[in-house]
């Protein structure tokens, strides 16, 4: 099990010199993630540490270096910053900016559907990040609620499977998280070429979960998006947002809006909201 491949750290333990573990944030198959205190920065940070079983795996080591390099060259308000890394110590790791806030998945699980005065600015902020990434030639490939931190602005995290556009187009195997993978991510080649439009599908699936409080597609059978239509959105969802989400979830990549299209459509919807809101902006002036 994933939890068996762990360093056995606890709060107060030293992750590496100058980095003290505070709280286990979970992580994934390849990394442990810890809220930690960085003595050099004198601030809380997030540390992603390769799990013991992946330290000697060349694919995992390349993945660590790749994610660090990507984060180091990208700069956007909706992307967390990388502060430092060490790929030569006993526990290879990198240090990320800590954004205070729950992830979207946890928020929806605890409180249900996100109200429109939060949903619409969230959608705009995520579209902004994707617009930037695609402009830099990067496809995220894992847009999902657990990778959205509800800060101000929202943060899209985890570039561990992100690829350059040309690399994404050459994929011949599935990459991503099952319920949030565009059809072409599930079956590259057979259902289309993987590219920026796949992130728009992931955005649509993420916003569907936020707007409705449940997923657009069932978890079983696996990859039901290959043959099923998304579930209907509840009637309480903002009509314009519902239409936009449905178009993001089009099975044909060519029919999906671009992130800029999404942002442009959201602007008048946000303008129609009550003025007392904490976030949201326009990409055009």
From TrEMBL:
InterPro entries: Kinase-like_dom_sf, Prot_kinase_dom, Ser/Thr_kinase_AS. It comes from the Bacteria. Keywords: ATP-binding, Kinase, Nucleotide-binding, Transferase. Residues 19-270 form the Protein kinase domain. GO terms for molecular function: ATP binding; protein serine/threonine kinase activity. PANTHER family: MITOGEN-ACTIVATED PROTEIN KINASE KINASE KINASE 20-RELATED (PTHR43289), SERINE_THREONINE-PROTEIN KINASE YBDM-RELATED (PTHR43289:SF34). This is Protein kinase domain-containing protein. It comes from Aeromicrobium erythreum.
